[in-house]
Each structure stands twice: as structure tokens, then as C-alpha cells.
């Protein structure tokens, strides 16, 4: 019996924080790739510490719905899942290449395939591009447009910015958009100065966050100049210093994110039974393409 467990941060304060996790779990559940699909959270129920007790399968794949490698993926989740013998060196990662480690969860005495975070997977690049298509309602968006891939960033952890730069570089290599730039909230180059980095009249801004919350709904719109007060709202696109900014909101809310979760589990050895093609088609229909 093959089981998938999607683990995410969640929030005691924002009920929307867990919504993408549940939505992607439903999409994957409907694909039939797994006999069961469970979700677990740090700040909601079921908690990381409890979620494996709800799993019946003997082949368990755990996929962290996080953007970057770091404290949660390397310390908190393995500890709370009680992955016996976990050592971060198991990843042998450069901050982007964490793949999977197979360990026994002591709490249930079963093997768990613990995967790297979704945010560093190559398939996330396609989700960012799809997000740009969704917000502009244009499956061919690119020519005449700039693309800003925005992340939190922090000088305290270099891995925080690596995923953002990685995907921006991959999209730039495709030569689809006129300009592609990685910007950050807490390090240079900062998203506050977005118009300075683009010559294009139209710029799509895609935040590399899993869920819409304080940063994506309040900080970024105000910092970029989409509005003076987020409670007053803004248009999409919204003119900012001569450019039209198409604000896409958190990338993790894009339905295609379910594909990245499946890719992570598939890389760890899960039998996806043709689910990837089904999910890609389902999520394209869901966005109206």
C-alpha cells in the first residue's frame, strides 16, 4: 500500500495558510497515484509529530511543501517524524540538490522516503511560468513582458535565496520573457525597487511562497507600490512608475503545484501510475487554459 504525506507549515492565525496544501492533496488523491494521501502541519492539526500515526501504508513518501532547504526541512520535520538516524549529511546537498533519504520512523517502525522540499525541484520552474500565464490569462505570455521571481531571502541563511535565483536563471535560459530578475524582501536586490530592474512596460511579479499570507497579501503589494494600504486593494495590472505590474500572488496556490509534489515522490521511487500527465491536464483546465 503506497501512501503520500504532504507536510506544510500551516498557521494558527491565517486560515488560508493550509488551503493550498488541502487543494493539492485533493488533486493528487483524485489522480489515484496513491492508496492514501495525508496532510500534516507544524502550526495546525494533524501535527508533524502525529501524522504518521494516521498512515496505513507500508510504502510511505513524505514531501515537504516548503520553498527552501533549511531549518524546517533539515531539523524540525525529521525530528518531529522521529526519523531514526537522520543526519543532514544524508542530503549531500548544495542547498538545491536535496533529493530523498530512506529512514525508519521510530514511532511506527516503518520505512519512510523523506523527500527534498518542493521549492527546489526543477518542476517548480514550470509552476512559476504557469502562474504568469494564469494572472495574465495568456498561455503565450512572454514577449514584451518582464518576470520578477520574488522570495523572502535572508542574510542569515544563504539557502533561502538559492531557490529563487535557481528558477529565475532557468526561466531566463528559456528566452521566453524579455527580462527575468530574482528579487527579495530581506536582501539585495530588493523587491521595493522593482521598477528600477525592468525596462519592459509589463512586468509579472510571482512570489515564491507556498501560501498567501502576511508577506504576499500585505508586505509585497505595499513595498512594490501597488497600493499605499493593502486594505484598499489594487488592480491587476496596477501601474507602478510607468510599468504595469501583474501581481500573481503566492506561487503555491497555483493548481500545477500538485505536479511538483508528485515529481518529488516519483524521484524517491513512488509508482505514479501515469498520474503526472493527468494532473498536468487537470490543472491546466482548472486555470481556464
What can you tell me about this protein's structure?
The chain is an alpha/beta fold. It has 2 domains: 2-120 and 254-286, Rossmann fold, CATH 3.40.50; 124-251, Rossmann fold (3-Layer(aba) Sandwich), CATH 3.40.50. The protein contains 8 helices and 10 strands. It has helices at residues 19-31, 48-51, 71-80, 124-136, 159-173, 214-224, 257-267, 275-286, and strands at residues 2-8, 36-41, 59-64, 100-105, 110-115, 145-151, 179-184, 202-207, 238-240, 243-247. The protein has a 5-stranded mixed sheet, with helices on both faces. Strands 7-6-8-10-9 form a 5-stranded mixed sheet, with helices on both faces. A hairpin with a 2-residue loop joins β9 and β10 (243-247). α4 packs across α5 (159-173) and α7 packs antiparallel against α8 (275-286). The radius of gyration is 19 Å and the shape is globular.
Annotated CATH architecture of the largest domain: 3-Layer(aba) Sandwich
Instruction: Give a quick account of the main beta sheet: strands, pairing sense, barrel closure.
Output: 5 strands, mixed
Task: Output mean pLDDT.
Answer: 93
**What is the first-to-last residue Cα distance?**
35 Å
Determine Rg (CA atoms, Å): 19 Å
Q: What is the third-level CATH name, the topology of the largest domain?
A: Rossmann fold
CATH class designation of the largest domain: Alpha Beta
